[in-house]
Amino acid sequence: MKTSSVILALSALLFLGCSSSKDYLIESDYSYHGKFRKYKTFTFVDQTSSDEDKAIYNPFIEDAIKYRMKLQGYKYTEKKPSLLISYRMFFDDFDFMGYNQPDIESWSKRGDEEEEYDPIEYGLREGTLLILLHDRKQRRVIWQGYAAGVFGNKDFDNERYLKRAVRSIFDQYRFFADGYMVKNQEVE
Asked: What is the pTM of this model?
């Protein structure tokens, strides 16, 4: 009887371990025109509306993005930021066009703007969070990250869960603000 209890407990732990953040798809892709090592500042695209639609504006998501950007050395400013950030929550399944690309860090060392895009279509599940980084001067999206299947309906407002989704998405964007690491090394 003791052995079956141990086996049952181990099975439950294995099941719970397999059903963690890997239950949802986390991906990102980028523009070959992005100057990822040159950006320093950011702000949000004004997404509020009179009814503050939760698909367009969510303070938990915005705070989590702001925290992560500052952690990576970016400064928040309203005056001529280098990056504009927007995000959207999708509550239904949909098809999404992404790209199968080289690792962003490897590509950024080469910086080949003429590289070919390899499109790939994702079937994203309900509860998708999409975050877009726009180069303000170029007027184009230079990076997008998304996590599918992370939440349910429009009334979903679990702050901790949304922060975890933002963190998982930004784990795909590993660039620090231009000059950030140099400044921190000089201080130490």
From this structure: 0.79
Cβ–Cβ < 8 Å for 45, 81: no
Using CA atoms, how far apart are residues 8 and 108, in angstroms rounded to an integer? 48
Average pLDDT, 10 consecutive residues per value, the chain (188 residues): 40 36 75 94 80 68 96 96 94 87 86 85 86 97 91 70 91 91 52
- Helix or strand run (H / E) with residue 143: strand 140-148
The two tokens of residue 18 are: 């397999």
- The secondary element (H helix, E strand) that includes residue 42 is strand 41-44
Cβ–Cβ < 8 Å for 144, 122: no
Are 48 and 56 in contact by the 8 Å Cβ rule? The answer is yes
In angstroms, the CA 176 to CA 180 distance is 6
Nearest residue to 126 (alpha-carbon basis) of 88, 89, 93, 151 = 93
182 membership: H or E segment, kind and range: helix 180-187
**Eight-state DSSP code of residue 95:** E
Q: ∠ CA(82), CA(28), CA(168), 5° rounding?
A: 95
Residue 83 three-state SS:
strand
